[in-house]
Structure formats: C-alpha cells, structure tokens
Specification:
Length: about 160
C-alpha cells in the first residue's frame, strides 16, 4: 500500500495538491547539480536525512525543479510593506536555510513551522526574508506572549525568559 501511495503522489497534478503556508506539498532535496545530472553521490532532505543521488534524480523526474542558489542576496524574497504574509518562495527559502524551529533546542521540522516577522509587521516591520524566522506553533505563541522576553542570539537561535 505504501508503494501505491507513493505512486499516487507522483501522479497527482501539483496544482491540485493542498497548500500550507503558501506552498504545495513539497519535498526539499539539497544536491549539487553534478550529482543530480549524473545520479551519483548523495543528496539531503530538508529533515537532514541523506538519500542517494539516484533517488533524488528519480524524484526530480516527475517534479518541477526550483533551484535554490544559496549564499546569494535575497532581493527577490523581500516584499517590504507590500504584503503582510510571507509568500511561497520565502517559505521555501526558510525551509532550506533554517530546517527546524529557530528556538534553541527545538527540533520541530521546518515544514510544520510558522513564518514569523522578527520586527512585528503591525509595528512597521517588513516581510523580508532576512527578517523572518521559523517557529513551531508552541514557540510562535510564546514569542507573542507579553509575559516572556525574547532574545535573538548571533547564531539566529531564540531563547525566552519570563519577565519579572
């Protein structure tokens, strides 16, 4: 039944799949272009789990490919004040770069996290990629709780302290 389910997923049109956070159901695979082309080597899922390059190539055969150029500037991922919610491209970028909830010690997977503005949009913050972070639902509620003080550390990890 698992094989049948995988076959079904591979055959469904992408535009008919449900969306979460502006993204269709997606599998994020990191692999260099040479490995994808040759089918030799190793790829890594967004969860950190390694898969073979040949499996990544087979998965890419039926999917749309979105190249993620890491280390480049993110101008196209910056929306400023024109939109309050993060778009699909921004969410995908966060999934690729952050991988899990950004609270220290939390390992909630990125695809289940909420995108959060470091500077509140309602207080003039912008919907820009470099001002966004992923937070699991529990920590997203906590970051908005006035009883807690939030610290964003230089490594982009977040910690909370009860206000006194």
């Amino acid at each position: 039944m698992g094989d049948a389910f995988c076959e079904l997923i591979e055959r469904l049109p992408a535009d008919e799949l449900p969306k979460v956070g502006g993204l269709n159901a997606s599998i994020v695979v990191s692999i260099d272009f040479t490995g994808l082309k040759s089918g030799v080597g190793r790829a890594v899922l967004a969860t950190g789990e390694p898969i073979s390059a040949s499996l990544a190539r087979r998965m890419a055969c039926e999917a749309g490919l979105i190249p993620a150029v890491l280390g480049s500037r993110s101008e196209l991922l910056d929306l400023g004040r024109t939109a309050r919610l993060f778009n699909g491209a921004q969410r995908l970028g966060l999934v690729v770069t952050q991988r899990v909830c950004t609270v220290l010690g939390c390992d909630w997977p990125a695809h289940l996290c909420h995108a959060h503005h470091d500077d509140s949009w309602f207080s003039g913050g912008e919907t820009n990629f470099d001002e966004a972070r992923l937070l699991c639902p529990r920590h997203h509620a906590r970051i908005h709780d006035p009883r807690f003080e939030t610290t964003i550390h230089p490594d982009n990890q977040v910690t909370f302290h009860m206000r006194t």
